[in-house]
Amino acid sequence: MTGSVASTESGVGERRFRVTCDSLVELRWRLAPHVQMRSERFGAIAYNSREQRLTLLHSSAIGHLPGLLLGVSAAAVELSALGLTREQLDDLLAQLWNAGILEPLAEVAQPIAQPGTESQ
Amino acid sequence: MTIVRDALMEGLSSPLCLTWELTWACNLSCRHCLSSSGKPDPLELDLQACRRLLDDFRDMGIFYLNIGGGEPMMHPSFFGIIEYADALGIGVKFSTNGTRLNREAAQRIASLHYCDVQVSLDGATAAVNDAIRGAGSYERALWALQNLADAGVQGSKISVVVTKGSIGQLDELRTLASRFGAQLRLTRLRPSGRAQDCYEELALDDAQQRYLYEYLLRYPEIQTADSFFHLNALGASLPGLNFCGAGRVVCLIDPVGDVYACPFTIHPDFRAGSVRTDRFATIWRSAELFRDLRAQTPAAGCQRCDAYSRCHGGCLATKFFTGRSLFGADPSCVRAVGNPVSVPVPRRLSDHTRLVRRGSAGSSAAVGQSSLSSRRFRGVDGSSWGDIVGDV
């Protein structure tokens, strides 16, 4: 049930934050800026309008996490409804974060300072 | 990538690439115009109808629209339409000849959240461009690009239909794009619309196709709208889709609301329905034509070729409008797989050069009564799709 992420274009999103925690599942998440998502039979499609990049998400789980995607609840709260283990969901969240689709809510994450810029 | 390809081939809940031609009105008369544009049709969708359609697009989760024409800026409600789309969170990419893109228009575009402008230019010099698009069109396109740059519009494109005339100017076109902070976008000439009359004259020959393929590999930042996937048979795959997306991830809505499988298949055989009589979501998800296209193996007659997994037999529209079997190879197949002309070459649907009250293309056939002609989807030997797979 581990999700996989495949982009139709090269390049992945940038992580704007770093977090310190044992498991990503404990965090609250939201769609990254400029990203829209819709459900499909195989999972979901995400579109980043700024980078004009489509990403196919082969995970039936992601479409069933509306509270998570809206930053309403931590993934841990929604685990029971998905039949996923914590490790599986942790892996999925990491992939989505790496792909620039989800990001942790700012209040629980530390911005990564960019070269030549100050921390925001 | 197999999973990705299969998921897309089977069709999606909504199109990824929805081309919407707002009007047939155009103040140019390009030789290769895919929609044979010129004069508007009195039955073209008005602002109210367009807004209803945009509401449907939002409900379907459509991310962005590819707006074209005709010259879309000649639609009387052009800005009303794209500003409504923007307010709904639907991105707009639109193609324009630039003749109406003055400073005020550029500033209005710059104020939108997501509007990607593609200015058509078919040569790096006036001589090459104007021979196809008409006298003065080169200077006017550059004027539009400058207005966009001055207004701070990001990510504009110079969109080029590559022909025998422009293939030798790719370096110059890249330089020209960078001059305006724009990206270069190259697309393939198909024998659709008026291009049917000049396809043989303008289409790339084999050596030119190979040159283009190498060029695209060398400069992957050049956008192509995935239109050169038939060249993947030469070796490594170019970025993007590697199969025909018609009816699977792509479709077209024309100015009077008729829905076709792709922008290059404007013909009754590929008409899926009309948004005048059915909701777009119903047509996209249920039209017999689209269900057929999603169920079939593209160019099944090519399956024995070792390049099939990279090119999938090429462009459906190019085969159709040159009288080839849709089971066989693209007429520009770089492996020289034969697919002789086997049926009378279908003519384009209509010519909008003159004012003609055409209205909707077909009857008001409801969704499910597809106009898909079985003749078009039969192999040379008359076999059906299912019978011919792997047996040619």
Secondary-structure map:
The complex is a heterodimer of chains A (120) and B (392).
Chain A: E1 4-7, E2 17-18, E3 29-31, E4 35-40, E5 43-48, E6 53-58, H1 66-69, H2 75-78, H3 86-98, E7 102-104, E8 110-111
Chain B: H1 2-9, E1 17-23, H2 47-59, E2 64-69, H3 78-87, E3 91-96, H4 103-110, E4 115-120, H5 126-133, H6 137-150, E5 157-162, H7 170-179, E6 183-188, H8 199-202, H9 206-218, E7 250-253, E8 258-260, E9 271-274, H10 280-286, H11 288-295, H12 308-311, H13 316-320, H14 385-388
Summarize the model shown.
The complex is a heterodimer of chains A (120) and B (392). Chain A has 120 residues and is an alpha+beta fold. Chain A is built from three helices and eight strands.
What can you tell me about this protein's structure?
The complex is a heterodimer of chains A (120) and B (392). Chain A has 120 residues and is α+β, with helices and mostly antiparallel strands. Chain A has a single domain (4-108), classed as Outer Surface Protein A, domain 3 (Alpha-Beta Complex). Helices cover 18% and strands 27% of the residues of chain A. With 392 residues, chain B is an alpha/beta fold. Mean pLDDT of chain B is 89; it is low at 362-366 and 368-392.
